Structure to design on (698 residues):
């Protein structure tokens, strides 16, 4: 019975069917099946297969994003049901956002999805976020990495301000900083003292793995 | 040294890529989106204007839904043609049917230094250098912020105006000036240049690009700055850049509908605030690579590339067309020319009143100073292609052909001596060196840049005006750089 539901959860992620993923997650809880096992034996193998299909070129971005959405929706049901010290295994915890004065959403969202599909726990704090909001989210989520996006030459200055805010809050040694966005370059990342720069969502995963000292 | 006259693209053969039924369908989609879905305006000032004029405004979500009657009423006051004033009155641009005025590309942030070959961040001096080259080139009818003055901090948009005016006498369209404060300073500079508010309104020496955020969001700073300038009669170009598959539907018509709804919602705001404000319509759509999400401006199939120009005209607005946005980071690769080669021709056939812009690489971000000379060549190819052919007894030369007879040659004919020098116009590919051999086009382009910078020195603003501009800049630096 459990095996069958694990497979259904896995398939819902592979097929990109968020409604099915939610339905099966609820069924699992109704049937008192261990939510951690649902995650580790259903959702995770599902998203890993999505990632492999994407790497092989069989899947394109929409399949990847909708698969990740299915996993996230099921996680929203299953994670609150974890008991005791149960916690799903993650490569690292990431806080993501777009900097103050900048309302561009899509690049940062893609990065979040790619990281989620690759085993990171991502907290997306949205667009137009002040350095203080980033600091608060980093503290609340005990983040390993913070990712800050800026799409304008006028707002990329805020990425530097974020690093200054991290220093002032005494967090700079505890969290790695990744930056991205159209006007941002590797050179600029070095200049402002960021730890990593990625030009697109796919390379962001490699950078995040490197920052976590995890095998790519 | 005299400046050669501006040579815009002219054609009497405007071509419609879309028919009226398709344009009506696109317009209807926009009206439905504005009425039912709405557009987010994260600006208290904009929300109040909409609310006062009868739009459905949700102050919490900042979404504005605009009834079609209000859209149509507001759109009835957009002027179809107007004047873009230049610093030099002789270079004023009167918008008109069948004439496309071009400018350089913008706004890049990196420069490949032509002396050292090193890649570095752009500076105020680069803005001035390119403004001077723009001033000399006949393809350039007005000037855009080509790269960002990153050495000037938050007041860089004002420094970009300053250094452009000191190096360029044409109309200047700012791509970077955002927010009420910067725009107030920018307006103050324009009034100093013109001598009065009335003259600014009559012959606006500057205009402003306002970028929307797809899908269906306006930028607070951009919109509030535009309201300040629109109030002074300064033209505003609303530019949407929807990307198919990520920030817009993956279908072309759907992406155009999203882009149009963004442009029209901002245009309606401008008209409600100040009826008659001159506004350009612009959609620079792109494709997202389905594998990487990367920005692709030139896929194999980009049919009806200038459909947005026709959409603008269908609304009764002038259009800002987008040309020359190669993704190639190379100065002179096959890709850097091939992607954009048909752009000027197509955009002129569509009848865009103003067009951006030549001279950058790597999707509008990277400046090689000599690239503008190479792109200028593509521009003039298009310009010549659009010119009418002269057919008369002199050009038909039937008598000369009869004199030469079958198997002869034309080199000894006076008719040939008269016409041969001018019949082949030399572009960058056919420039001769001192040995009579064709030069390398890139080497020629670099020499041309150097020659322009050494020899072309446009008259700067008067000392009194410059003194006032310096005062405004100093004041802005002190007030805004805190």
């Amino acid at each position: 019975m459990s095996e069958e539901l694990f497979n259904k959860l896995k398939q819902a992620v592979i097929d990109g069917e968020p409604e099915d993923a939610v339905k099966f997650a609820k069924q699992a809880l109704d049937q008192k099946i261990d939510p951690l096992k649902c995650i580790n034996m259903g959702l995770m193998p599902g998203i890993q297969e999505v990632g492999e299909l994407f790497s092989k070129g069989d899947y394109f971005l929409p399949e990847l994003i909708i698969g990740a959405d299915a996993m996230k929706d099921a996680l929203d049901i299953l994670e609150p049901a974890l008991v005791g010290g149960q916690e799903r295994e993650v490569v690292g915890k990431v806080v993501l956002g777009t900097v103050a004065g900048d309302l561009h959403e899509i690049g940062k969202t893609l990065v979040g999805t790619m990281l989620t599909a690759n085993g990171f726990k991502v907290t997306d704090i949205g667009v137009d976020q002040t350095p203080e909001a980033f600091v608060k989210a980093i503290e609340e989520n005990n983040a390993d990495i913070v990712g800050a996006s800026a799409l304008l030459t006028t707002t990329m200055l805020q990425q530097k301000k974020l690093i200054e805010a991290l220093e002032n809050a005494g967090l700079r040694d505890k969290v790695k900083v990744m930056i991205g966005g159209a006007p941002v370059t590797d050179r600029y990342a070095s200049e402002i003292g960021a730890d990593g720069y990625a030009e697109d969502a796919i390379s962001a995963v490699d950078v995040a793995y490197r920052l976590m000292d995890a095998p790519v | 040294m005299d400046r050669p006259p501006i040579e815009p693209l002219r054609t009497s053969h405007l071509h419609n890529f879309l028919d009226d039924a398709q344009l009506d369908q696109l317009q209807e989609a926009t009206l439905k989106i504005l009425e039912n879905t709405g557009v987010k305006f994260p600006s208290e000032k904009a929300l109040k204007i909409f609310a006062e004029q009868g739009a459905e405004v949700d102050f919490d979500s900042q979404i504005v839904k605009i009834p079609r009657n209000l859209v149509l009423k507001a759109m009835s006051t957009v002027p179809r043609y107007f004047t873009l004033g230049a610093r030099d009155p002789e270079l004023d641009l009167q918008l008109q049917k069948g004439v496309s005025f071009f400018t350089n590309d913008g706004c890049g942030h990196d420069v490949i230094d032509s002396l050292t070959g090193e890649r570095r961040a752009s500076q105020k001096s680069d803005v001035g250098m390119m403004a001077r080259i723009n001033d000399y080139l006949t393809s350039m009818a007005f000037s855009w912020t080509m790269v960002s003055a990153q050495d000037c901090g938050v007041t860089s948009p004002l420094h970009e105006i300053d250094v452009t005016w000191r190096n360029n006498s044409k109309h200047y369209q700012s791509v970077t000036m955002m927010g009420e404060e910067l725009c107030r300073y920018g307006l103050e500079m324009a009034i100093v240049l013109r001598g009065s508010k009335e003259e600014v309104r009559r012959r606006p020496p500057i205009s402003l690009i306002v970028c929307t955020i797809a899908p269906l969001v306006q930028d607070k700073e951009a919109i509030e700055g535009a309201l300040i300038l629109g109030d002074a009669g300064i033209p505003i170009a609303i530019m949407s850049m929807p990307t198919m598959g990520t920030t817009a539907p993956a279908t072309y018509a759907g992406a155009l509908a999203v882009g149009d709804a963004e442009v029209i919602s901002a245009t309606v705001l401008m008209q409600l605030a100040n009826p008659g404000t001159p506004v350009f319509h612009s959609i620079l759509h792109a494709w997202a690579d389905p594998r990487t999400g990367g920005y692709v401006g030139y896929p194999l199939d980009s049919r009806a590339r200038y459909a947005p120009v026709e959409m603008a005209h269908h609304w009764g607005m002038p259009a800002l067309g987008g040309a020359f946005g190669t993704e190639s980071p190379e100065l002179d690769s096959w890709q850097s020319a091939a992607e954009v080669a048909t752009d000027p021709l197509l955009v002129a056939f569509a009848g865009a009143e103003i067009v951006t812009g030549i001279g950058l690489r790597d999707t509008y971000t990277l400046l090689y100073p000599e690239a503008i000379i190479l792109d200028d060549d593509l521009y003039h190819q298009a310009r010549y292609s659009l010119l009418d052919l002269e057919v008369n007894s002199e050009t038909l030369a039937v008598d000369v052909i009869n004199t030469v007879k079958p198997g002869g040659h034309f080199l000894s004919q006076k008719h040939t001596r008269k016409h041969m020098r001018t019949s082949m116009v030399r572009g960058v590919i056919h420039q001769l060196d001192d040995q009579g051999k064709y030069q390398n086009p890139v080497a020629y382009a670099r020499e041309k840049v150097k020659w322009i910078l050494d020899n072309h020195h446009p008259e700067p603003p008067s000392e009194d005006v410059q003194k006032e501009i310096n005062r405004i800049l100093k004041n802005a630096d002190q007030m805004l750089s805190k």
Notes: Chain B has a mean pLDDT of 96. Residues 252-273 of chain B form the longest helix (22 residues).
